[in-house]
Amino acid sequence: MIDPIVSSLKIASSGLSAQSTRLRVVSENIANANTTGDVAGADPYQRKTITFAAELDRLSGADLVKVSDVGRDQSPFIVEHDPGNPAANADGYVKMPNVNMLVEMADMREANRSYEANLQVVKQAREIINMTIDLLRS
């Protein structure tokens, strides 16, 4: 059995990694919120989604988090009338990405808070380890 403090560090580090990936996916979605296709009628950028899964760490017996899939949002594209756009079809309509900025901003905020919470666990565990080392020295 591994030390509970070391185990909490492993769990928190897996959370940090997962939330980093989540922030990357959200940033890609935000950056491509207005990216249309290159030619008339082409599909635009399709919003990415992320799925997490629990993964058992056999050494510690703890459930770690991992990214199980980065998929594509299957919701329909937004259609706008913009005849001057190179991606416009014969009727002047352009398919726009299925990215909702409010959803992305909320997801970014949640990922940021989760990242900070995991970082706080790492800081606390480190502080406990340092206190233990100081106690053993004296």
TrEMBL record:
Keywords: Bacterial flagellum, Cell projection, Cilium, Flagellum. It is found in: Bacterial flagellum basal body. GO terms for cellular component: bacterial-type flagellum basal body, rod. Pfam families: Flg_bb_rod, Flg_bbr_C. InterPro entries: Flag_bb_rod_N (IPR001444), Flagellar_basal_body_rod_CS (IPR019776), Flg_bb/hook_C_dom (IPR010930), FlgC (IPR006299). Signal peptide: none annotated. Residues 9-37 form the Flagellar basal body rod protein N-terminal domain. Residues 91-134 form the Flagellar basal-body/hook protein C-terminal domain. PROSITE patterns: FLAGELLA_BB_ROD. One of its GO terms (biological process) is bacterial-type flagellum-dependent swarming motility. Its main location: other. Belongs to the flagella basal body rod proteins family. The basal body constitutes a major portion of the flagellar organelle and consists of four rings (L,P,S, and M) mounted on a central rod. The rod consists of about 26 subunits of FlgG in the distal portion, and FlgB, FlgC and FlgF are thought to build up the proximal portion of the rod with about 6 subunits each. This is Flagellar basal-body rod protein FlgC. It comes from Jiella pacifica.
